[in-house]
Fold:
Amino acid sequence: MDAIGTYEEREFPEFRNATLDTLDLGKKKHHVPFLLEVDITNARNYLRQLKESTGEGLSFTGWVRKCIGQAVSEHKHVQAMRKGKRLILFDDVDICVVVERLVARRDNAAGTLPMPYVIRKANEKSLRAIHDENRAIRRCFGES
Structure:
């Protein structure tokens, strides 16, 4: 296994060419961001019950990252990469997050700098492992 992990290669489906044409046209158009509302009651209840049974609280952010890793693992095509007429489907789900890193400025004041961090193989990690990694990232980049 090399640095990119394991993957499967398939033929790129012909019917997807229309989608590529649409995406190409979309590059020239204005885009409108949108808001999304999601009911997180069940997630909060799950995390609350977990805290009551173990005595430890796990972060909602960790839970979201675990869910993303699991969902992408079950639907690999959402992170597929096109390589010519081939489609590459990765087995590993890597999640890139942006973390604010505390830095010293020239005037000796503290500032922040956005830094990327990749959570490797998020689909194989437990909620606890992702939570712990989130906390380690925060310590490493200087957050409290």
Q: What stands out?
A: The chain has four helices and five strands.
